[in-house]
Write a structure and sequence with these properties.
Number of strands: 15
Radius of gyration: 21 Å
Strand order of the largest sheet: 4-2-1-6-7-8-9
Largest sheet: 7 strands, parallel
Low-confidence stretches: none
Helix content: 25-40%
Distance between the termini: 30 Å
Strand content: 15-25%
């Protein structure tokens, strides 16, 4: 039995990387691996449903702790102290589940994997010079650096060429059977059609206001369309205000956060995401798993998932977005669903877990590289 320890920034905020980690640990072979998880920042938004055999370790700080910011100093600048106090030393493999803070806590002298869930181009900015230096030091400790998409991979090559030989790509996978099963559960929310749906936080990166502007343009051609935001965030009130200013308050609907979003996703006509940056969004994978086409900005994995624009389209301009939405609204839904099913076969859970277990086994039989660089 091998022991694997995951370190994640937060495991209690209900986001895509949290959902992905839950999917991984719940499907790794329990007869082969003992699993431990530590989160750095503890919140109260969502308790991830992990199996009983998975051990959750004490977190480092609460999200609402007044001392959170000063305590983060130690995560950035005194790694060894935090590692010694919070990271057990008896695991065979350590996996940091994203860049910066989790990767800082990879223990030196151990077998480590740094799993990166989005592009790292922000570290190219002058204001992040110190973070970029620290990230390179953290990568020194890693035996492998895992990118989850084409864009993530390229960003690692561009910003950290000294670690290029460690980079491997494992595209995100989706529990397609689980998603479809949960989509069949009862739901009080009924969407009006044509229904455009956005799944994700209402924050600056997810860019919900751009989607609102695209929807306004869409309504000039499809005046009976409805836009639904499934999620919450600091831009929620601004979305409502601008929708009212545009005279769209009766067609724009904020649904809030739902533990099980799949009965809602399964009702939409087109799923949309116009984030500035994404690794490989679970929301798009889940939409396609439910047979729903998507239109998105060009983010990690979107062009590959789109399958030559047969079940999705990654666009640059608002005008392209409107054209793509109208195209999918007008196509035969059963044919589009078939294309979605063909596309998602490349990202099935079975194939995903198999790749991960092969990676873990490969790294654990190698000698530790710390100090060889």
């Amino acid at each position: 039995m091998k022991k694997i320890f995951f370190i994640i920034n937060s495991f209690t905020t209900g986001g895509g990387s949290q959902s992905l980690l839950t999917q991984i640990v719940n499907h790794l072979n329990p007869d082969k691996y003992d699993i431990g998880i530590m989160e750095i920042i503890h919140d109260t938004i969502k308790q991830e449903p992990v199996n009983e055999n998975i051990k959750l370790y004490p977190y480092y700080v609460k999200a609402d702790d007044p001392e959170r910011k000063p305590r983060m100093y130690y995560v950035y600048h005194e790694w060894d102290k935090i590692i010694e106090e919070y990271v057990p030393d008896d695991y065979d493999l350590y996996v940091s589940f994203n860049y910066l803070k989790p990767s800082f806590l990879l223990p030196p002298g151990k077998k480590n994997i740094a799993w990166i869930h989005g592009d790292v181009y922000n570290l190219a900015e002058d204001k992040f010079t110190e973070e970029r230096r620290l990230q390179s030091e953290a990568f020194d400790k890693a035996d492998r650096i895992i990118a989850i998409s084409d864009i993530t991979e390229q960003s690692l090559y561009d910003l950290f060429p000294e670690h290029k030989e460690k980079v491997r790509v494992i595209y995100n996978g989706v529990d397609e059977e689980g998603v479809r099963s949960k989509a069949g559960e009862a739901c009080d929310i009924k969407l009006l059609h044509p229904a455009i749906l956005s799944v994700g936080r209402l924050d600056a990166n997810k860019n919900p206001l751009r989607l609102l502007n695209i929807f306004e343009k869409l309504c000039s051609k499809v005046p009976n369309a409805h836009l639904y935001y499934l999620g919450y965030g600091i831009l929620g009130e601004e979305v409502e205000r601008q929708a009212k200013d545009k005279g769209l308050e009766n067609q724009v609907h904020l649904l809030g956060y739902h533990d099980n979003p799949f009965p809602i996703i399964s009702q939409c006509d087109v799923s949309c995401m116009f984030s500035h940056s994404e690794g490989f969004p679970m929301a798009l994978l889940e939409s396609v798993a439910l047979g729903k086409p998507f239109v998105s900005s060009i983010v990690g994995g979107s062009r590959i998932l789109a399958k030559d624009s047969l079940c999705g389209n990654a666009v640059k301009t608002d005008e392209e977005a409107v054209e793509s939405i109208i195209k999918f609204l007008g196509e035969d839904k059963e044919i589009t669903k078939d294309h979605c099913m063909e596309s998602i076969e490349r990202f099935t859970l079975h194939r995903y877990i198999e790749q991960i277990e092969n990676l873990f086994d490969e790294v654990m039989v190698e000698k530790v590289i710390w100090g060889d660089n």
